[in-house]
Design brief:
With about 250 residues, this protein is α/β, with parallel strands linked by helices. It has one domain: Rossmann fold (3-Layer(aba) Sandwich). About 45% of the residues lie in helices and about 15% in strands. The chain is built from 10 helices and 7 strands. The N and C termini lie far apart (about 40 Å).
Length: about 250
Amino acid sequence: MSVLAGKVAIVTGGGQGVGRGIALALAGAGASIVVVDQYIDRAVSTAGAVRARGVSALATIADVAVPDDATRAVDECVATFGRLDIVVNNAHEVIPGAVLDASDDDIETMWSTGLLGVFNFMKAARPHLTNGASVINIVSSVMLKADTSGFSLYAATKSAIRSLTRTVAVEWGGDGIRINALSPQTTSPAWEQWASANRSAADTIVGEIPLGYIGDAERDVGPVAVFLASDAARYVTGSVVLADGGRGHLR
C-alpha cells in the first residue's frame, strides 16, 4: 500500500527542479498533487507527469509573494480534492551575487519569495490542516556554512525560514501538525545555468560533497520528503533534515 494514499499535497515551485522532483516522489507514494508555479506551462507539465504515476493532479499559477495568490491556490486545492494534508514550500527566487552588489529590489525579491512566500502558504493552509498534516519547508546547507560567497542573502533568507519552521512547529504541535525543513543538494535548471556560468565554483561545490555528486531531485531528495510527509515521521517536527550528500554537515 502506498504510504501517502488518500493524501493531498501542495508543492510550490513544482514546475521544475527540486519542486518537480518532490512532487513526483510524493505522487509515486500515492498522494494527489497540486502543482503551484509562476508559469502555467511548467505546472501543467509536472501535473501531467504526476498523473502518469496513477494519481490525480491539479496545475495552478501563483506568485508565492502575493497572499491572495496563496489563498486562492489553497482554496482551489480544497475545492478540487476536499482536503489538504501536505504543504511543500519550495518556491524561492534566487539572485546570486555579492552583498554589496545587491539592489533593494534584489533583497525585496529574495525576501518576498522566500520567507514571506513560506509564511503566505502556511497561513493560507492552516485552516485546512488537521492532526497528522505535514509542512515541509525547503532550505539550504548554505545557511549552515560560514563561506557563502555569492549567496549571503540567500543564506540569510533560508536561515529565516529555518527559524520560522522551528517556532511554528511549537505553535502547531498541539494540534498534531508537523513542520520540518528539508535541505537538498540537487540538479535543476537553475543549478545547471549557474554551474555553466561558474564552472570553477560549481566544481568546488561538488568537491565538498562526500558522496561525490549532485543529487537527483526525485530519486535522492524526493524519498526524504515522502518520509517527512508520512506517518513514519509522526514524531519528527521542528527538524532540519539534510539530503545533500553530506556537504552541509560533514564539510
